[in-house]
Amino acid sequence: MSQKTTTPLILDGNAYAKEVLHHIKSEIELLKIQNKQVPGLAVVLVGDNPSSLAYVKNKEKKCKELEFYSEVHKLQTDTKERDIINLIDLLNKSNKIDGIIVQLPLPKHIRPETIVEAIDPTKDVDGLHPYNLGKMVSGQKSLQPCTPKGVVGILKYYSINLNGLFTVIVGRSTLVGKPLAMLLLGENCTVTTTHSKTKNIKEVTKAADLLVCAVGKEHLIKEDWVKESAIVVDVGINVVEKDGKRKLVGDVDFENVSKVCKAITPVPGGIGPVTVAMLMANTLEAYKKRNEIP
Hints:
The chain has helices at residues 13-33, 50-66, 81-93, 112-118, 130-137, 146-157, 177-186, 201-205, 254-257, 271-290, and strands at residues 9-10, 40-46, 69-75, 99-102, 166-170, 190-194, 210-213, 231-234, 238-242, 245-249, 263-264. The protein is an alpha/beta fold. The chain folds into 2 domains: 35-121, 3-Layer(aba) Sandwich (Rossmann fold), CATH 3.40.50; 145-272, NAD(P)-binding Rossmann-like Domain (Rossmann fold, 3-Layer(aba) Sandwich), CATH 3.40.50.720. Strands 1-11-8-7-5-6 form a 6-stranded parallel beta sheet. It has a 3-stranded parallel beta sheet with strand order 3-2-4, sandwiched between helices. A hairpin with a 2-residue loop joins strand 9 and strand 10 (245-249). Helix 6 crosses helix 7. The longest helix is centred in the N-terminal third of the chain and has 21 residues, at 13-33. The chain is globular, with a radius of gyration of 19 Å. The mean pLDDT is 95.
């Protein structure tokens, strides 16, 4: 058992998100003074997944706080793929809309890659269109996926020097794992990506200076998976029942891992609010590019 007793640095996502949103709000106020149109975000929600409904409500709330123009399109679970694409085509052409997101996951009969590819890349504020992912991989400026962008952002916010860090990402999804690996390579990290088929995964994670977990499995990362004084970023959000109440927990066993690590993100209050802030930042970025505003 580790003898480390110092308290880890808590990487507070709410604090970082608040600062990002404050800067965005300041820019919106300036646009209003100049009588310019404000950025517009359209959210497409298919079905009634409770988590998705909560996420969309949160995004609506942030749009209202920032005084963005906002549209939410709620579609039935059995909506046909072609009807969703037709809606996206209308949003692509709308001068009021600068950013479009389709809330994932989608019902099983709808191919997410087909829907994402229907979005105009200049309005792809989730950063998941192959055009934007390709530009990111090649090191060109593009709209970046919100969660990976937020992970890098919060580490920089807390002045963590990423240069040369041996980094292990647990999870290889297109939403988080793969794009995050590219962004961290761009910050001169040495990156290893692990997944369910990785052999001796605990030995790999225990070597990490920076450990990021994004698989959606409650308390997967235990204290003995983590090197003393590692930096731990928990992207996972899992809903569990405890004492008859629902609560959110991460992929990391926060209570015990925090006894050995140097810095850690909590759940809730870590990467979750940062992801929403990055969505708003991407919408403003897309707006400025479309309107040729420096």
